[in-house]
What does this fold into?
Amino acid sequence: MLAGDVGVSAGQSDMSESSYAWVPELSAVIVGDIAYNDVHAALMESTPETRKGWIATLEEVQSRNPQVVVASHRKADAVNDASSLAKTIEYVELGDKLLSADPRPSLAEFVAQMVGGNPTRANVSTPIYGGVIQGLQ
It folds into this structure.
């Protein structure tokens, strides 16, 4: 490791408390499950509170202004840049809007909006499974 590498306890991510590695010399973060890079994000065990916490974690990582962001959930050809942080925030915000709606959408409506709003993301089974676990029918 380079001098100055820091392991950072970051709080909420997709399903649990997380941490990431910050390498200031490279302006790089290795974020694991905090950000998803063009892959549908796991919302299945989330609540309105944990989704807000996840967004706060993403914003904290963004505050370091990294140039390189390595996510564990990513397409093989995805560019490892900071755009995955903003795009994950947008994804979680859309999921939160739908899952917090009253009335809640049907499973088909939820999947259609998550996939339609994110047409290049891989693993369409993730929003299907997430919607089922969240109790959508």
Notes: The CA atoms of residues 48 and 100 lie 7 Å apart. Residues 6-133 form one domain. The radius of gyration is 15 Å.
